[in-house]
Amino acid sequence: MQNIENKTAFITGGTKGIGYGIAAALVAQGMNVAITSRSQESADKAAEELNKIGKGKAIGLEADVRDYSSQENAINKLLDKWGKLDLLVANAGIGHFANIEELTLAQWHETIDTNLTGVFYSIKAGLKALKDSKGYFISISSLAGTNFFAGGSAYNASKFGVTGFSQAAMLDLRQHGIRVTTIMPGSVATHFNDHEPSEKDAWKIQSEDLGQMVVDLMQMHPRTLPSKIEVRPSMPG
């Protein structure tokens, strides 16, 4: 088992849901984590809560995954503070679900720019630092990245793209000692798409479950790579 204490992580969209669950699990293991949000206030508030957990430290950074220079600036702030980047988690995402006749151009572009281009911008901005550390890149795709559904044209396109992009990147980057894993969750109890989690979501995957998965991946011996992981609730809702 690899010791991950004092390693550093950069998590896009880390103020709630899956991103926050991953950040909390890593901080509890002693990793230092930078979480991003398009709102500095939200990032600071989430980082304050993370800093109550224990061993590791957290900082909140304002950044927009749709803007490459914004991603570069955020990565550089992490490097200025901690000097290295061991893990980059491309988690930020949105969902617009509508019949193709009703889906607007703005909704299409926002979905693709956030969910797909944002993943490319994130790894591109952090690539040199990950090469230096022989680090880890994890993208959060979805079971919707291999399973299409009515009303999901934009979301399916973005997540099919994330899955394909990440797996191709895995083949490109492993020659540099960088591991790449694509995590593809099904139903998760989060605030995604303005959902308010409740007791009715107890059957779903919880964000802390995915946090534990990322800890397990980080602790795994680097000779072994689970390159694509599909995750489902054990029982249907």
From TrEMBL:
<dbReference type="InterPro" id="IPR057326">
    <property type="entry name" value="KR_dom"/>
</dbReference>
<dbReference type="InterPro" id="IPR020904">
    <property type="entry name" value="Sc_DH/Rdtase_CS"/>
</dbReference>
<comment type="similarity">
    <text>Belongs to the short-chain dehydrogenases/reductases (SDR) family.</text>
</comment>
<dbReference type="InterPro" id="IPR036291">
    <property type="entry name" value="NAD(P)-bd_dom_sf"/>
</dbReference>
<feature type="domain" description="Ketoreductase">
    <location>
        <begin position="7"/>
        <end position="192"/>
    </location>
</feature>
<protein>
    <recommendedName>
        <fullName>Ketoreductase domain-containing protein</fullName>
    </recommendedName>
</protein>
<dbReference type="InterPro" id="IPR002347">
    <property type="entry name" value="SDR_fam"/>
</dbReference>
<dbReference type="Pfam" id="PF00106">
    <property type="entry name" value="adh_short"/>
</dbReference>
<dbReference type="InterPro" id="IPR050259">
    <property type="entry name" value="SDR"/>
</dbReference>
